[in-house]
Design goal:
- By secondary structure, the protein is an all-alpha fold.
- It folds into 2 domains: 71 residues; 228 residues, Orthogonal Bundle (MetI-like fold).
- Helices cover 79% and strands 0% of the residues.
- Helix 6 packs across helix 8 and helix 8 crosses helix 10.
- The longest helix has 39 residues.
- The two termini are 14 Å apart.
Length: 317
């Protein structure tokens, strides 16, 4: 219970700090949302009236107190430009972004862990060199270029997958997945490369442990050795990478959604930044912070499942 309370307290503190920094930073960005809303030909009096109506004339501490109070109530405010609740706008845009991120995470986990295990078991061999080379290239290549290459070969030259757009799950699982293969692969390639490198290092480290030699002496070989001894003990760094990459996946959707013409959270964030729509932009950042914090909490829980010694150390401390 104590550890759970500490986790939750830390999560609340992180979200509050993100809210505070976001509130301050977006107001340092040049531009006036009232001027943007009024138009270029608006008079100074008209702009002033809009600023007053939006509460932008109030001192910053008053504006922040109002924003923080709304956040505590679960209210992220309304868009300056269309008057829609920010929660509703996020809910409408989230399915596309989360779908792309989910497919990217599955792709990265399957291929990253698989390639890393093969490379670690074949340290110094051709498979190890091939995986290391591909992982380095995957990290180095920009995602927008990867996306354009995939679209060219798998949507234009060979029309196997749609080049743009998103199909909701309500239109069928197959249609939903076909629209996500290319953007999910584009977003997940760099993450897969990171996972492969950490998995390789974890496997090599575990194979050098005395208990692996003991397991081999007792007859554990092949799949039995990998599943029973190697993977479980090499999983901690991999789980860490998965948790850390959550924020990268959400950030990467901004570029991927632009390449594949998907209207998701990334597009919403870009448009709100260009329009100086403070509530929407702040709502997006808070949503991303909640997702990242939740992912890290799940990683913390997974540590205890994978390695019970983690919980034992916490209890003894």
């Amino acid at each position: 219970m104590v550890r759970t309370a500490r986790r939750l307290a830390t999560a609340v503190l992180v979200i509050w700090l993100v809210h505070l920094l976001t509130f301050l930073l977006i107001r340092l960005v040049p531009g006036d949302p009232a001027q943007q809303l009024a138009g270029e030909r608006a008079t100074a009096e008209e702009v002033a009236l809009i600023r007053t109506a939006l509460g932008l004339d109030d001192p910053l501490p008053v504006q922040y107190g109002r924003s923080l109070g709304a956040l505590v109530r679960g209210d992220l405010g309304q868009s300056i430009f269309n008057g829609l609740p920010v929660v509703r706008m996020l809910a409408d845009a989230a399915p596309a972004t989360l779908s792309v991120a989910l497919v990217a995470l599955l792709f990265a986990s399957l291929f990253g862990v698989g390639a890393g295990v093969v490379a670690g078991l074949r340290q110094g061999g051709w498979a190890d060199r091939a995986v290391s080379t591909v992982a380095t290239v995957g990290i180095a290549l920009p995602s927008f270029w990867i996306g354009m290459v995939l679209v060219t070969f798998f949507a234009l030259v060979n029309p196997w997958f749609p080049a743009t757009g998103y199909a909701p799950l309500s239109e069928g699982g197959a249609t939903w997945l076909r629209h996500l293969v290319l953007p999910g692969t584009t977003l997940g390639l760099a993450v897969a490369a990171e996972i492969a490198r950490h998995t390789r290092g974890g496997v090599i480290d575990v194979l050098a442990k005395p208990y692996i030699r003991t397991a081999r002496a007792r007859g554990a070989t092949g799949v039995r050795l990998v599943r029973g001894h190697v993977l479980r003990n090499a999983a901690i760094p991999v789980v860490t990478v998965l948790g850390l990459q959550t924020g990268k996946l959400l950030g990467g959707t901004v570029i991927v959604e632009a390449v594949f013409g998907i209207s998701g959270l990334g597009s919403l964030a870009v448009n709100s930044a260009l329009e100086r729509d403070y509530p929407v932009l702040q709502g997006f950042v808070i949503f991303a912070a909640v997702v990242v914090v939740t992912a890290n909490l799940l990683v913390d829980v997974a540590y205890g499942r994978i390695n019970p010694k983690v919980n034992a150390r916490v209890r003894s401390s």
